[in-house]
Amino acid sequence: MAATIITVLFVLMIIGVPIAISLALASIAGIMASIYFIPLEVVPQRLFTAVDSFPLLAIPFFMLAGEFMMAGSMAQRIAGLAFACVGWIRSGLAQVSTLTSMFFAGISGSGAADTAAVGKLMIPMMEEKGYDKGFAAATVATAGTIAVVIPPSIPMIIYGVTAGVSIGDLFTAGIIPGIIIGISIMCLNYWLTKNKAYSQERVRFELTTFKKALKEGILALLLPLIIICGIRGGIFTPTEAAAVAAAYAFIVSKFVYRDLRWKEIPGAFLRAGKMTALVVFIIAAANLFGWLITAEQIPHMLASFITGITNNQVLILVMINVVLFIAGCFLNASAAITILTPLLLPIAMNAGIDPLFLGVVMVINLAIGLITPPVGLDLFVVQGVADISFDRLIRAIAPFIFLLIFDLLIITYIPDISLFLTKL
Question: Residue 232, SS3?
Answer without folding.
Answer: helix
